[in-house]
Amino acid sequence: MKWYLRDSDEVISLMDSSRNGLTQQAVEDRIEIYGLNKLEDKKKKPVWLLFLDQFKDFMILVLIAAAIISGFMGDVTDAIIILIIVLLNAVLGFVQQYRAEKAMLALKKMAGSHSRVIRDGSTVDIVTSELVPGDIVELESGNVVPADLRLIEAHALRVEESSLTGESVPVDKTTEKLSQKDIPLGDQLNMAFKSTLVANGRGVGIVVDTGMNTEIGRIASLLQEDEAATPLQQRMTDFGKKLSYLILVICIVLFVTGLFRGEKPVDMLLIAISLGVAAIPEALPALITISLARGAKRLVRQNALIRKLPAVETLGAVSFICTDKTGTLTENKMKVVEVRPFAGAQKINEKLTLLDCAMAINHDVKQTPEGKWVGDPTEVAMVEYVAGHFNNDVIGQLQAALPRVAELPFDSDRKCMTTIHQFNGQFIVVSKGAAETIASLLDDQEVAASILNETADLSAKGIRVLAFGYRLLQHIAEPVNFDQIEKELSFAGLTGMIDPPREEAKKAIETCRSAGIKPVMITGDHQETAMAIARQLGILRENDLALSGPELQSMTRNELSEKIERISVYARVSPEQKLTIVRMLQSKNHFVAMTGDGVNDAPSLRAANIGVAMGISGTDVSKQAAHMILLDDNFATIVGAVKEGRRIYDNIRKFVKYIMTCNGAEIWTIFLAPFLGLPMPLLPIHILWINLVTDGLPGLALSSEKAEGDIMTRPPRKAGESLFAEGVGIHIVWVGLLMAAVTLGTQVYALSSDKAHWQTMVFTVLSLSQLGHVFAIRSDYESIFKKGVFTNLPLLGAIVFTFLLQLGVIYLPFANKIFKTQPLSVSELGVCVLLATVVFHAVELEKWIKRRNMAFKTSQSNKNK
Ligand code: ATP
Questions:
Q1: What atom in ligand 1 is closest to the CA of residue 362?
Q2: Whose CA is nearest to atom 29 of ligand 1?
Q3: b/e string for 544-555 if b means 16 or more Cβ within 10 A?
Q4: Nearest protein Cα to ligand 1, atom 16
Q5: 78, 324, 499, 597: which is the annotated catalytic residue?
Q6: Residue 608 confidence (pLDDT) above 70
Q7: What is the C-alpha to C-alpha distance for residues 199 and 740, in angstroms, rounded to an integer?
């Protein structure tokens, strides 16, 4: 239906609704008929295809082929066992992938948005997917339009429709019906379409279409994009590919040397391919996803909702946190503490000053049925002041006596809000806003200058000042031209309010400092107010700089670049300037977290390494642009999230270290044995088994590892740092070699002392060494005995379980047949366990040396100070 051709009241009655909204019953009926207001997701891959995907890997296919060939050539049990292990491997891979996808889906669900609708006569917040045709929706600047709407109210309403029309300049919306038929979407000025963005103003609309019936729904299939891999996953996938080639070459060399030594070609083929399968870390990308997604889940519990998975890994590298003041560092519980009506201003009556009246009518605060005032905390504080000072009814009475005829809503760029009301047969224009803004609109320059002085005094005490101006007019031209109206104002007075700093913010800022992260306040508020609060919180210290938006504007790039790392407070900054700040910090190789709540903050949130939106006070637009949403709008939550991000990254690095070292050890063992004149130390099944049990369980349990003791006292990791930095690469090489040496040593010893069970011993030593290794690398520096043996129970459980499985392989008769193992005597087992602890002790020694070096460096640098 062409809703734009109809009058708004006609649309309301056609939709069988009213300005009071639908009844609950009507809503339920309509959900039955129209379904949920959701854009359908791209068709999901069926589960069985996801499972088959596990066999897409080239090496796995080759292994299966080789197993089948060897089966035909006689060794049927071997072939079957290999196939079973491959199958188990696939199941494990599948489960991991499936869990990763589930976790991602859960994350997406949590990020679901809300809309404000009128139902049964009162305004309620509902989940956007529950909107139905006929619902009356309120829109305000920053909202994403939740469904296709025919507008029935529009106040300076401008909507950015680029997602639908490609046009990025916001369109002015109206409510009048249009007469021209068949006009393009961009010209349907009395409509607002799902997924477009309210750039400015306020409006109300009636839902005419939902879900896939909306304009965006019709083209939704064109818009669906795949979830991009995180940078870490990309790097790991690239690295995995390169590593695969290397391993392939090693396998070929192994195969060829085996042939020269007279081994059977089928045996050599199987061993070479098994080694290839075991050593290529194909599970790493899935393990990283799980680890990040699990991290994201834990972060939600700490009130940080991750919208984009890569954010979890980048969090740990943050070196600057640029944060808003109001609500994030402060409690956003404003309280009016100063009311200074201007003596020269008109009086409403004996008791009421014009300032009181202005506070009572120039706002968008609403009262709940329980009598609570809700809305912008600045405005709530004023309304509460007037209501408290006189009585609760005075607000309603004044609003009724001075009905509003037009408004220009608050905008943080203009820092001002204006409303026009009928007043004694005339019109009164009331503007409130930042002192500088109102002062610049006054007709009396002397008064303007005195306001600025007064404001500076109050601001220095951390008080937030708002000034009020007014103007009487005989008539108002339609449409209202605010440029003509917002000028030549008379001064009504000013108010001062306080917003106490959050207690927990102070501690979080201290933590930032010790963690090498610089906290920076960026605020729209007055410079003196901002500095006073920044000082109280410990953000602004001696030698730090504070800058105002206009000062920033006049600086050259070089000047800014020189000073930027010392600037702690930016005041009266416009959202566009936030982008300059982010870019400049990034050009100096910093990882920047930036908070924002308004529509205009979206570009800087997108540009930041971690864009952080406010869950409570933030607009939909800012939330969509952000990587992370703070559910409690609290600065301390960002710092908590950084800590969690560091821990998650540490743990990912640990399991990469673990898996790569183990795989390295397997390769070294098999590869070096022939050069030492030793027979093949392990059978293909042994290699596959080690890969199956050791890579999977203990590796995954490493992601439950608790934070290192120094997690928030060490500097952030460098941007773009490789996973193999900080000695990880070297560790992988030397511990892998050591593990192989111990394994081959076991072989030499067992063969020389004529032990019939030499191969079982070799197999056991390699298997158990890996368990010792994983236990030791739980911590990068600390001794495990200090960190606590029982502080990661999942890992301990995985180790015990794997150990029992290994005993099963050694001692259960049927396993002996399958794995070609023999029961070891107690002394043989004892020797194996003892040898397997060599790696554990060596890694503990490595950590001890690292600790000593660190202590030495600290004492040197203390001496130099
Ligand atoms: P922050 O950027 O840290 O959140 P802020 O709340 O002061 O701080 P803005 O919301 O951009 O930042 O407000 C900028 C200025 O606009 C305020 O300092 C105040 O002077 C003025 N202001 C804030 N809210 C209103 C409002 N509802 N009506 C009119 N003026 C306002």
A1: 28
A2: 433
A3: bebbbbeebeee
A4: 415
A5: 324
A6: yes
A7: 64
Please give the angle made by the CA atoms of 206, 371 and 361, to the nearest 5 degrees: 70
Q: Quote the ligand 1 centre to 550 CA distance (angstroms).
A: 16
DSSP string, 697-708: HHHHHGGGPPPP
DSSP string, 49-88: HHHHHTT-SHHHHHHHHHHHHHHHTT-HHHHHHHHHHHHH
Q: Which atom of ligand 1 is nearest to the CA of 466?
A: 20
Per the CB < 8 A criterion, the answer to whether 639 and 769 are in contact is: no
As beta bridge partners, residue 153 has 204
CA of 599 to the centre of ligand 1 (A): 14
In Å, how far from its chain's centre is CA 553? Answer: 31
| Amino acid in the structure at residue 169 | V
Query: Of ligand 1's atoms, which has the minimum distance to the CA of residue 363?
Result: 27
Q: Which of 204-213, 620-629, 660-669 has the lowest mean pLDDT?
A: 620-629
Is 324 labeled as catalytic in the residue annotation? yes
pLDDT one-digit tens code per residue, 633-686: 999 999 999 999 999 999 988 988 998 999 999 999 998 988 888 888 998 889
Q: Encode 540-552 in three state secondary structure.
A: CCCCCEEEEHHHH
* 393-401 vs 377-389: helix crossing angle, rounded to 10: 100
Does residue 325 have its Cβ closer than 6 Å to ligand 1? yes
Gap from CA of 525 to ligand 1 centroid (Å)? 6
CA geometry: angle at 444 spanning 441 and 448, to 5°?
Answer: 65
Closest CA to 701 of 742, 655, 657: 655
Which of 378, 408, 432, 440, when mutated, tests ligand 1's pocket best, judged by the most ligand atoms within 8 Å of its CB?
378
Summarize pLDDT for 65-111 with one digit per residue, the tens. 777 877 776 677 777 877 887 787 778 777 766 776 776 666 666 65
Beta-bridged to residue 470, according to DSSP, are 430, 490
Pocket test for ligand 1, best of 140, 365, 412 (most atoms within 8 A of CB): 412
Q: Which helix (H) or strand (E) holds 432?
A: strand 426-433
Confidence grade of residue 58 (pLDDT, cut at 50, 70, 90): low
Q: Which of 632, 506, 522, 644 is nearest to 575 (CA)?
A: 522
pLDDT at 506 over 90: yes
Measured from the CB, is residue 525 less than 6 Å from ligand 1?
A: yes
* pLDDT of 814 over the 70 cut: yes
| 434 close to ligand 1 (CB < 6 Angstrom) | yes
C-beta of residue 463 within 8 angstroms of C-beta of residue 338: yes
Question: What are the contacts of 231-234 at 24+ separation with CB within 8 A?
Answer: 231/310, 231/313, 231/314, 232/288, 232/292, 232/310, 232/313, 232/652, 232/723, 233/285, 233/288, 233/289
User: Above 50 in pLDDT, residue 223?
Assistant: no
Q: How confident is the model at residue 222 (pLDDT cuts 50, 70, 90)?
A: very low
Query: Residue 300 and residue 293: Cα distance in Å, rounded?
Result: 11
How does residue 145 score in pLDDT terms, banded at 50, 70 and 90? very high
Percent of the chain with pLDDT over 70: 94
Average pLDDT over residues 494-511: 93
Q: Does a cis peptide bond (omega within 30 degrees of 0) precede residue 46? A: no
pLDDT tens, position by position, 827-836: 999 999 999 9
558/560 Cα distance (integer angstroms): 5
Q: How many A from CA of 521 to the centre of ligand 1?
A: 14
- Has residue 267 got a pLDDT over 50? yes
pTM of the model: 0.80
The residue whose C-alpha atom lies closest to atom 9 belonging to ligand 1 is 524
Q: Would you say the CB of residue 524 lies under 6 angstroms from ligand 1?
A: yes
Query: Is residue 277's pLDDT more than 80?
Result: no
Residue nearest to atom 7 of ligand 1 (CA): 525
- Report CA(276)–ligand 1 centroid distance (Å): 62
